[in-house]
Amino acid sequence: METTDLIFRIVLIVVIFAISLVVAMYSTYAERKVAAFFQDRIGPNRAGPWGILQPLADGGKMFLKEEIIPTNATGFLFIVGPSLAILTACIGSAVIPWGSAIAIGGHTFDLQVTDINVGVLYIFGVVSLGVYGIMIGGWASNNKYSLLGAIRAASQNISYEISMGLSIIALLMLTGTLSLKEIAEQQHGFAWNVWRQPLGFILFLVCAFAETNRSPFDLPECETELVGGYHTEYSSMKLGFYLFAEYINMFISSAVMATLYWGGYNYPGMDWVAAHVGPTIGPLIGVVVLFGKIFFSIFFFMWVRWTIPRFRYDQLMDLGWKILIPLAIANIVLTGVISTLLK
Asked: pLDDT exceeding 90 applies to what percent of the chain?
């Protein structure tokens, strides 16, 4: 690897990490504003113009609050839990293609930290590790509500990862690759996978809600039953890590969804733009398009939260095992039959 390429990758890592944190931080502001809109309220409007500095005020509050570790908690694991949650949330962005190759000063750079040929498996591996942060934190708290929340999270993640994996198998049958970069390139222009896999997309979307513990699947932190769920005993920035991890997971899952089904950085007329605007501006427009898709998905996450009531836990399990898994298997069979007939 050339020195120039190495420096660009390091800069890209720092930029993606910073963007992930900023998006997570201002997702808390957007969540409150969206909730206020749906409930005919104003929302945050005190810290700065239109309340735009509210996330900074909340962050300062988190930093300045007293660090409390319960007497009966397992001290080391109590700290490892939120650390692992935020770590696994951040490393998922490494394989996401944020745009096509960009030309700068005679050099061509990929807007992707690394393009591994098993990028989809990498994402699933990271998602599987994320639940350990919740499990460890809930168990180490030595609190019955935290433990129940952790057990719920583990059961929920295991159940819905199966449906999510099966929905992706049907997509991989059409794309023939596990590389997110190649999947994005195959959706050139307006040939998005959502048109070829509408049922698979719906299944993936529902499972994404469950994997990120977002309402109506937020049973692991159900306040009406479990106080705060797995992070009941946490305070200060350890609680902040758990909350940040949830919003970063929402951001990364939206990016993965946009890459797999919504064409990623592709948009209609991109060839004309690249030919007439240039090899630098064209890819940057693609980056803006990708982030537009991501922000719409994040808004949809919030829209659903403040519109649909929470499931009961038995309904959650029934949906995962009795409805989504059979539908995902049927989607695989249907995809195989149609692909065979079209050959």
From this structure: 34
